[in-house]
Structure formats: structure tokens, C-alpha cells
């Protein structure tokens, strides 16, 4: 596995002809189960293939159980400098419901260790909208965590994945999930609580104080290129070594054994490549960029759409104006972004904006530019 | 005998093949079972297979024209099958099931939609008889057709189920026959059933129809018990038609069908004279002249004859291109020999209207051609092109009644594989205008309103009228309470109530038609565990307190949802519509008020709350292709939504409100 990861990293970085790697994120599944040695080997390969700055952000996703104190130290020694802990909940019943193996105490213990090893660079995840959860029980749990956490918090609404036992129980009606209104209330109260203790909501689900933003995820939301390595990983980059100029969406083979065979056979396990058109890239830039509090600045947009400014795209649309009038969206000299209220309903705003983008793009093309 | 059945015409493709081909194979055993003189009688035809029949051998006094009438499922079609078998018209096989019911829906529902006719040859006491069985449509929706069919008859066989007894439709059918002064032969069927109680039924017949129980024939059409007796009674009791062959031709069109190769095939009964190939005939209704190409009898397939004579029943083909040229009830006569048309001709008058739209607009042309083909055989359906902002291009179709509508829809689906959105049925209202200006505009004082958008304002109207029907319900007495309550909620007024035997009650109510077009029958059936039967007949128009109800979305009226309702029902209807809309309109970025209003007065309201949160929580590290696809699909859907003010309404929302509700 280790040699395959390095082999694939090497192949894909060369393919992209990227000169500088700004961050590395070990995530998906339970990467903290991997050995620190594997992490170190991959990082070494990356820095051999491209420039990896000494202070580049290297994040590891860790589950409380598998991240004993000594292992965490080992990861730090291998180059990891940021930890993201999947605490999920501080209620043991909720943890069982989510199928987690750890307890609230174990989670807090891991957090304690992590804060010592990665001060100012430890993030925690919490989930809301769980069956049986109320606004006050949710707020209570968050309050408790806020006493203990470091400078970064991610809050996710429960999404029911098909095939999980939770999904089946909810489908059957044996587990009542909170109503839409209640979930909205949970989100709203959490945003306010975090704001009140000095956190900046720099993205829909992410909060940081003392400037502890995740640079890796931020560049993802800003539409930067990323190279996905390992079974089931996703990537977005231009395979310049093949003389291409358009960005590709790439998916690596999901099943580990087949992935390894493919890597051994041809250096990488890319299962699917989809060339993204310029419009598709713009759509992703729009969808991702508006998730951040800064939104999409004019300069940022200009990097992707050289011929059409944000004003050209959205400035004359009645429907966009309506959204501005409703206090949900702002288009000004800084760029395009959501208001506090608008961020919570971004997916509704995006439908109008995507249609407008498509329209302006078609008009522009029709006029022969 | 053979020759009568070997000619299979292309048009009857839905007829079971067994009827024509099996006849050849089974002929011998059939003949063995027939009385000897019967076989002798059939011989003249067997040697001249391809020759046309000479119908002159049947003088008027040897002709009997009759129908079988019955409530649904009482065994009308089974009895017809047996009569056809006994007379050798069709071969006796166990596959002869409802030979005359040719449509799939007829067999499925056990009803007869399209009347069929069969000429039977029967020898009785040394005489050869021509018995014309004129089948009638089995539902009140087609009561006009029934009355036309009956006017070609001199007698009827009234079939009553020995177990179920007299039902609502038995009553309706009896009165039609009684009013036409026809000889009535009461037959109690299904005496082989375990629960059969023919005595009780005889008592009912005596009480309700004033027919002595001695006249009733107890039969089992299924087993053939006593069926021969029925035929003999037809000969004994039904008088021959009172017509004269020397009179000029006078033929009643009592049905018509359409054949792609030969055009319209009109079923006719001759009230005078004779008709043959080459004759020039005129339609009394359209005044158009045609040259006769072919005449013949139905056995039940078309069997050409040299001529048809007064008193006989058969078919005629004369170059008519559309069924509207051979309208039911019309009279045909010879060119330059006009006759007084037979009384009672009416053009079909639709009483129930419904919008019909293709589910997908790209299916418009296919649906159009399917509807055209179906209406070729059914001139009583009226078609007007219509378009709805929400549902696209479609039609507003007029039907004789609710069953007619259902049958039409079912045939579209079964025979043409068309999938349609059918809107809730409405009835034609009338308004008596008081405004001089409007009267001048319409050229008359009383106007019919089918489209709610054209409903005139109360200020320019002296009164509104709604169509009513006289409904007959027959039920076991334990359900009376529930049924009376149901009728009251439907604004019905009781006219009569009587026990027809110790346990069964007949109720008569005047109903506003619009109260029964939607789900009355289903409600009645479900609260009586299926035991109550219902039938109705037209009872004219009555004054009604009608109002136009608008549906508003954030204060903007939705044109396609406007409806005409009775004032007493406005709240219930309005509330139901608002509730259905609430479930069908997705949340938006602002609150949506859904209101039902009479003029400026809001009578019901529902609210769709604004979205407070609609954003995917977790979005990093992984693949956003799925998310992008989902968003783009939603954005595409947003484009297709209809905007009422700034409220976006998906097509599904309109469908869920406008569509006929199959259950409530």
C-alpha cells in the first residue's frame, strides 16, 4: 500500500507538472490507522517531486480511538502539523447511533493530547441534526466543547447515506429525525454561539479564531488544483505533461486491491477522467467560492474568467438583484458573496446564479467573443 | 349455418378468433345438439357459402326484435352468449364469454359500452324465425343510446340476479322499456348460485314492476338452464314489428362504427320499405345523400345480404366518412321519397367535462391521433383544443357521464398506450344574464359556462343554474343511515324512499351533478361494503348559489386553478386545494401564502414557510461532481417552473391539484 501511494503520488504530480505543493491532507476513511512511517514516506515523495515548503500545512484526520497520545506524537514527528479530530458528539448515545467506536471521554482525552502536540492547529468536528437531538441538547454539547476546543471547529449536518443502518432506521420511521425548522435553528444558534466567542465563520461549516483557517480547504473552496491519491480519491488538475490545457475531474479506483494492481501496472489507479469545460470550471468556482465568507473577489474570478467579469455575468440580472434586495447576496467592489443570512440558504441562491452564469456564457459565446 | 359465421371481417379484430374459426371445427357437434328441424332450416345457406343471403324469406310476422337489459353483472352478456349458441350463431365452446362485449374494458368491467347486434335464426313449432338481439350499452351514461336501441325493439328480456335482486340500474332500464311500451320478459338469472333466492326476487318484481311472478323465468345462463324457454317466450310474447314493406324506406340509425377500409358502418332498423346496394339514401339530420354499397345482417360479424326488408335489423355501408354522418337516432330514407323522421333524435349532449393533457408535451401528436381514432367510433365525445399555462397544450373533452369518461381514458391507455393527465371533471353550468350589454354580446340571455375563466360576475347575472340528476340508490337497509348522511353532504334532496322487500330499500334523490361526478360512487360503495347500487338520469337544471373561487399565491391569482363551486362547498374545496398545493410547492426563500378566495374574501389559507437553511453542510476534500449535477438539475427544474408573481410553482403542483383524485 505504502509503495503504491508513493508511486501514484509521483506519477500524478509529474503529470500535472505542478511546481509547488502548498498543502497536504491525509483524510478519508481512518488515515490515523496508517503508520507514521507511511505518512513520512508519502511526504518525502511529494517533496521530491515538487517544492513542499517547510511550513506547508500537513493535516491528518484522526478518530479519537485510534489516536493514542504516542501515535499522535509519531505523526507529528513524521511531518504532520495539523490535526482534525472527528469527535462528532459528546453524547455517548449519539455516538453509538452514529456507529462510532469511541466514547465522549476518549474524544476529550484525544483532544487534550492533540492540543498539546498541535497547539493552535487542532480542529474538531461535530454533527447536528441527529435523531432525538433537540436545539437545547445540541447547544449544550457545543457549549461544552467550546470550553475545551482549540481554534478550529467544523459543524456538519447529518447526511443519511444510503445503505447505512441509520438510513434504514430513519426510512422505516423507527428513528425520528428533527424537522427542517429545528435543524435550521440548530445551525443558526451554533453560528451565533461561535461568533460570540470570537470564531470567524470562514465557510458554511467551518469556524476559526486567531487566524487558524485551514489553508488546504480554503484553497479547495477557491478553486485551486488538487491531486487526489489513494483508493477512491478525487482530484482536479490539468494534466499538462500530456499537453492538455483543460482541467480534468479525476477519480481513483475505489476498491483498494484493484487500485493497487493498477498502480503497479501503470503507475496510477485513475479510474475516470472527465475533461471540464471552461463553463464547468466556472460553475465549480462559483459553487465553491460562495461557501466562504469572503466569497468570490473580482481578482479571484479574473483568474478563471478572463473575458467576463462578475459584473458582466451577474450585474444586469433582475433575479440576482432580487436576491440582493432580499439581503441574501452582495455584489460590490470587492466581489460576489453571501450575506450572513444568505449563507444558510446558499443552495437556493446557487440555482439562480448557475442559471444566470449559463445564460451570460451563452450570450457571450453567441456574440462571438 | 356455416356460411353465416365464416366471413370474418377485418374490423372485428378484437373479437375472439374462436368465434369464427372454431365455428367451423365445432359445427358438427353443434348441429347434433340442435333440434332436427333446426338443421334442416340451416341447410339453404350451407351450400352457397359465398352467396349473399336472401332475407325475403323472413316475412315481418316471423321477426322479433328484442334487447336484453340488466344491472351490471347480472348476466346479460352470458345470456346473450347462450342465445347465440342455441341458435347456432356461434359455436358452443366454453370460451364463449361475452361474445358481444368486444372491448377490453367491457370484459374487464363487466359492462357493455358499445352496443352490438346479432341476428339469430330459430325454428319454433315448424316456423323459421329471425330474432334480432339488439344489445344495449349497459350504463346510464349511455341512456340515450339505450333508448335508441330500444326504439328498434318491440320487447326486452329483463335480467335480474337471483341473489342480488333488483338494483338501481334494473329500475332505470325497466322504466326505459316500460315508457317505450315494450313487451317485458322478466328473467331471474343465476339460480344455480348457493345464495339464490328467486322467490324474493319475484316478489320484488311483482311489487316494483307490477309483473306477476308467474311470468318470471328462472334460468341459469351459465349452465344453460331454461334458456331455450326464454327464446320461446320471445317468440310468444314479443310482437312482430308493426311495419309495412310497401311503405317507402324508413330506417333508424341506432348505432354506428368506423372501419378504416370501408368507412362508417351504420346499424339500422327498418321501419318501412326495403334497402339494397345501389339505392340512393338521404340522412334526415344532415340532408346528405349517399349511395348504398352494401347491406347485411350481423351474426354478429357482418354478413352481406341482397336486401334488408321492413322489420329487419342489420347494417348499411354507404360511403359515410365520419361517424358524425351516421348519428344515433337519425332516420335514413330514399332519395326523393322523404318520410317523417322517427321521433326522439338528439345530438349527443356532454354532461361531464375534463381537461386532457399529455404527460410530456412531446407526446402531444401521438395523443392527438389516439384521441382522433377513438372518437371515430364515438361521436358523443366532444373535443375542444385547450391549453393551460401549467400543463401545456391539450384538450377539453366532453363526455356523456363519468363512466363514459373513465372508459374513454382507459381505452386510451390500454389500446393506444397513451399516458395522460386527466383533470378533475367539471359540469356545464348556466348563467341567466341580467346585463343588457352581456346579453347583446352573447346574443342570448342564458349562457353555458364550461371554463371557469368565463364565469360571469354575479353583478351581471340574475341567477346561476347547475345540472341535476335524479339518482336511484338500492341498498340493504342497514346502510340507510350512512347513505342518507352521504347524500346530505352532497346537497341532495330526497324524493322517495321505499322498501322493495323486507331488507332492501330504494332511495331517490335529486343530486347536483357536480356532487356525484368526482367520487360519489366510490364513497357509496365503500360505506355499503359494495352492496348499494346507484344509477341516475338527467333531471334538468336548477338554480344554484354558485361562486367562482380563485387560488392566490402571495396575493396573485393562479388562472388555471380557478374553479366554480357551490357557495356551501367553497370552504371545503378551497381548503383541500390549499392543502394539496402546500404539499406540492417547495419551500422558497420567502414565505408563501396559499389562499382560496371568493372575490376579495379569503376563505382558506395555508402557508409554505421560507427556507431558513438550505446548504450542503460538508463540502471539501471529496468529489463535488455529484453536488454539481444535483444543483444543475435543480437549476434546470427551476427554469421550467411557472412563476406566479415571484413564487415558483412546479408542474407537479398543478397536476396534484388539477388531477382527478382516484380516492379521497
From TrEMBL, chain A:
Entry-linked CDD domains: Radical_SAM
SUPFAM superfamilies, per database record: Radical SAM enzymes (SSF102114)
Keywords, sorted A to Z: 4Fe-4S, Chaperone, Heme, Iron, Iron-sulfur, Metal-binding, Mitochondrion, S-adenosyl-L-methionine, Transit peptide
Signal sequence coordinates: none
Chain ranges of the Radical SAM core domain: 1-200
GO MF entry, a single one: coproporphyrinogen oxidase activity
Subcellular location(s) of the protein: Mitochondrion
One of the GO BP terms on file: porphyrin-containing compound biosynthetic process
Function, as annotated: May be a heme chaperone, appears to bind heme. Homologous bacterial proteins do not have oxygen-independent coproporphyrinogen-III oxidase activity. Binds 1 [4Fe-4S] cluster. The cluster is coordinated with 3 cysteines and an exchangeable S-adenosyl-L-methionine.
UniProt family annotation: Belongs to the anaerobic coproporphyrinogen-III oxidase family. HemW subfamily.
Entry-linked PANTHER family: COPROPORPHYRINIGEN III OXIDASE, RADICAL S-ADENOSYL METHIONINE DOMAIN-CONTAINING PROTEIN 1, MITOCHONDRIAL
Protein name, as recorded: Radical S-adenosyl methionine domain-containing protein
Organism per entry: Terrapene triunguis
From TrEMBL, chain B:
Membrane protein topology class: Peripheral membrane protein
Keywords: GTP-binding, Hydrolase, Membrane, Mitochondrion, Mitochondrion inner membrane, Nucleotide-binding, Protein biosynthesis
GO CC, one annotated term: mitochondrial inner membrane
SUPFAM superfamilies: EF-G C-terminal domain-like, P-loop containing nucleoside triphosphate hydrolases, Translation proteins
Pfam families per the UniProt record, alphabetical: EFG_C, GTP_EFTU, GTP_EFTU_D2, LepA_C
Catalytic activity: GTP + H2O = GDP + phosphate + H(+)
Protein's job: Promotes mitochondrial protein synthesis. May act as a fidelity factor of the translation reaction, by catalyzing a one-codon backward translocation of tRNAs on improperly translocated ribosomes. Binds to mitochondrial ribosomes in a GTP-dependent manner.
NCBIfam families in UniProt: lepA, small_GTP
Protein name according to UniProt: GTP binding elongation factor GUF1
Species this protein is from: Terrapene triunguis
Gene: GUF1
Amino acid at each position: 500500500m505504502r509503495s503504491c501511494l508513493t508511486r501514484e503520488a509521483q506519477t500524478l504530480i509529474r503529470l500535472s507538472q505542478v511546481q509547488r505543493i502548498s498543502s497536504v491532507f491525509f483524510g478519508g476513511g481512518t488515515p490515523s490507522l496508517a503508520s507514521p512511517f507511511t505518512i513520512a514516506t508519502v511526504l518525502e515523495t511529494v517533496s521530491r517531486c515538487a517544492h513542499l515548503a517547510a511550513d506547508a500545512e500537513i493535516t491528518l484526520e484522526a478518530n479519537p480511538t485510534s489516536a493514542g497520545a504516542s501515535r499522535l506524537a509519531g505523526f507529528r514527528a513524521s511531518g504532520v502539523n495539523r490535526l482534525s479530530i472527528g469527535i462528532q458528539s459528546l453524547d455517548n448515545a449519539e455516538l453509538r447511533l452514529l456507529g462510532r467506536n469511541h466514547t465522549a471521554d476518549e474524544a476529550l482525552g484525544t483532544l487534550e493530547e492533540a492540543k498539546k502536540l498541535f497547539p493552535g492547529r487542532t480542529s474538531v468536528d461535530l454533527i447536528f441534526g441527529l435523531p432525538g437531538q433537540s436545539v437545547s441538547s445540541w447547544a449544550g454539547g457545543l457549549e461544552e466543547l467550546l470550553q475545551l476546543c482549540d481554534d478550529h471547529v467544523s459543524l456538519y449536518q447529518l447526511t443519511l447515506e444510503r445503505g447505512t443502518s441509520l438510513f434504514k432506521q430513519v426510512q422505516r420511521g423507527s428513528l425520528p429525525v428533527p424537522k427542517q425548522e429545528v435543524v435550521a435553528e440548530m445551525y443558526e444558534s451554533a453560528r451565533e454561539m461561535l461568533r460570540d466567542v470570537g470564531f470567524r465563520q470562514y465557510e458554511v461549516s467551518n469556524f476559526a479564531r486567531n487566524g487558524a483557517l485551514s489553508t488546504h480547504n480554503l484553497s479547495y473552496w477557491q478553486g485551486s488544483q488538487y491531486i487526489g491519491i489513494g483508493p477512491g480519491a478525487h482530484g482536479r488538475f490539468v494534466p499538462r505533461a500530456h499537453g492538455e490545457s483543460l482541467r480534468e475531474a479525476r477519480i481513483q479506483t475505489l476498491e483498494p486491491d484493484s487500485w493497487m494492481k493498477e498502480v503497479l501496472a501503470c503507475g496510477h489507479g485513475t479510474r475516470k477522467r472527465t475533461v471540464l469545460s471552461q463553463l464547468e470550471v466556472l460553475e465549480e468556482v462559483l459553487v465553491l467560492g460562495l461557501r466562504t465568507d469572503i466569497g468570490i473577489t473580482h481578482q479571484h474570478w479574473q483568474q478563471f474568467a478572463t473575458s467576463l467579469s462578475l459584473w458582466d455575468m451577474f450585474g444586469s440580472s433582475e433575479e440576482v438583484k432580487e436576491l440582493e434586495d432580499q439581503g441574501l447576496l452582495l455584489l460590490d467592489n470587492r466581489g460576489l458573496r453571501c450575506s450572513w443570512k444568505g449563507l444558510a440558504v446558499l443552495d437556493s441562491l446557487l440555482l439562480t446564479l448557475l442559471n444566470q452564469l449559463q445564460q451570460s456564457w451563452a450570450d457571450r459565446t453567441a456574440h462571438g467573443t | 349455418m356455416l356460411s353465416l359465421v365464416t366471413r370474418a371481417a377485418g374490423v372485428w379484430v378484437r373479437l375472439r378468433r374462436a368465434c369464427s374459426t372454431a365455428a367451423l371445427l365445432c359445427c358438427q357437434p353443434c348441429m347434433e345438439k340442435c333440434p332436427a328441424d333446426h338443421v334442416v332450416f340451416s341447410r339453404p345457406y350451407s351450400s352457397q357459402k359465398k352467396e349473399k343471403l336472401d332475407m325475403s324469406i323472413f316475412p315481418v310476422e316471423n321477426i322479433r326484435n328484442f334487447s336484453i337489459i340488466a344491472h351490471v353483472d347480472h348476466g346479460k352478456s352470458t345470456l346473450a352468449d347462450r342465445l347465440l349458441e342455441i341458435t347456432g350463431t356461434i359455436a358452443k365452446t366454453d370460451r364463449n364469454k361475452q361474445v358481444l362485449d368486444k372491448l377490453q374494458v367491457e370484459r374487464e368491467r363487466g359492462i357493455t359500452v358499445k352496443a352490438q347486434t346479432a341476428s339469430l335464426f330459430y325454428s319454433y313449432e315448424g316456423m323459421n324465425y329471425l330474432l334480432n338481439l339488439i344489445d344495449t350499452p349497459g350504463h346510464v351514461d349511455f341512456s340515450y343510446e339505450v333508448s335508441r336501441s330500444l326504439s328498434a325493439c318491440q320487447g326486452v328480456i329483463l335480467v335480474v340476479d337471483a341473489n342480488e335482486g333488483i338494483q338501481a340500474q334494473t329500475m332505470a332500464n325497466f322504466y326505459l322499456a316500460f315508457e317505450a311500451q315494450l313487451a317485458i320478459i322478466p328473467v331471474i338469472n343465476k339460480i344455480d348460485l348457493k345464495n339464490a333466492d328467486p322467490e324474493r326476487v319475484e316478489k320484488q318484481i311483482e311489487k316494483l314492476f307490477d309483473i306477476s311472478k308467474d311470468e318470471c323465468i328462472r334460468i341459469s345462463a351459465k349452465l344453460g338452464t331454461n334458456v331455450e324457454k326464454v327464446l320461446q317466450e320471445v317468440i310468444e310474447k314479443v310482437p312482430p314489428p308493426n311495419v309495412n314493406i310497401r311503405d317507402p324506406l324508413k330506417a333508424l340509425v341506432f348505432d354506428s362504427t368506423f372501419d378504416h377500409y370501408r368507412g362508417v358502418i351504420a346499424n339500422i332498423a327498418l321501419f318501412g320499405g326495403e334497402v339494397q346496394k345501389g339505392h340512393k339514401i338521404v340522412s334526415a339530420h344532415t340532408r346528405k345523400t349517399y349511395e348504398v354499397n352494401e347491406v347485411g345482417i350481423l351474426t354478429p360479424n357482418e354478413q352481406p345480404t341482397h336486401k334488408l326488408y321492413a322489420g329487419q335489423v342489420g347494417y348499411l355501408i354507404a360511403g359515410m366518412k365520419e361517424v358524425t354522418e351516421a348519428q344515433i337516432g337519425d332516420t335514413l330514407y330514399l332519395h326523393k321519397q322523404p318520410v317523417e323522421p322517427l321521433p326522439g333524435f338528439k345530438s349527443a349532449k356532454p354532461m361531464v367535462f375534463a381537461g386532457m393533457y399529455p404527460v410530456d408535451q412531446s407526446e402531444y401528436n401521438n395523443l392527438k391521433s389516439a384521441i382522433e381514432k377513438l372518437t371515430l367510433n364515438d361521436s358523443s365525445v366532444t373535443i375542444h383544443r385547450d391549453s393551460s399555462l401549467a400543463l401545456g397544450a391539450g384538450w377539453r373533452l366532453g363526455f356523456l357521464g363519468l363512466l363514459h369518461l373513465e372508459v374513454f381514458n382507459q381505452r386510451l391507455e390500454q389500446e393506444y398506450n397513451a399516458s395522460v393527465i386527466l383533470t378533475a371533471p367539471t359540469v356545464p353550468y348556466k348563467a341567466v344574464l341580467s346585463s343588457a350589454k352581456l346579453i347583446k354580446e352573447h346574443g342570448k340571455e342564458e349562457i353555458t359556462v364550461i371554463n371557469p375563466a368565463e364565469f360571469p360576475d354575479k353583478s351581471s347575472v340574475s341567477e346561476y343554474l347547475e345540472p341535476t340528476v335524479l339518482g336511484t340508490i338500492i341498498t340493504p337497509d342497514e346502510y340507510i343511515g350512512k347513505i342518507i348522511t352521504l347524500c346530505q353532504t352532497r346537497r341532495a334532496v330526497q324524493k322517495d324512499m321505499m322498501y322493495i322487500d323486507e331488507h332492501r330499500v330504494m332511495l331517490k334523490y335529486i343530486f347536483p351533478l357536480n356532487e356525484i361526478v368526482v367520487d360519489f360512487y366510490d364513497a357509496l360503495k365503500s360505506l355499503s361494503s359494495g352492496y348499494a347500487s346507484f344509477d341516475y338520469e338527467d333531471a334538468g337544471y336548477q338554480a344554484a348559489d354558485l361562486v367562482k373561487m380563485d387560488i392566490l399565491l402571495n396575493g396573485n391569482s393562479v388562472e388555471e386553478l380557478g374553479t366554480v363551486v357551490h357557495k356551501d362547498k367553497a370552504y371545503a374545496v378551497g381548503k383541500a386545494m390549499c392543502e394539496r398545493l402546500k404539499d406540492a410547492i417547495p419551500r422558497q426563500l420567502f414565505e408563501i401564502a396559499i389562499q382560496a378566495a371568493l372575490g376579495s374574501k379569503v376563505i382558506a389559507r395555508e402557508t409554505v414557510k421560507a427556507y431558513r437553511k438550505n446548504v450542503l453542510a460538508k463540502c471539501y476534500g471529496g468529489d463535488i461532481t455529484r453536488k454539481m449535477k444535483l444543483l444543475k438539475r435543480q437549476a434546470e427544474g427551476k427554469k421550467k417552473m411557472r412563476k406566479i408573481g415571484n413564487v415558483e410553482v412546479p408542474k407537479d403542483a398543478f397536476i396534484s391539484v388539477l388531477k382527478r383524485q382516484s380516492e379521497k
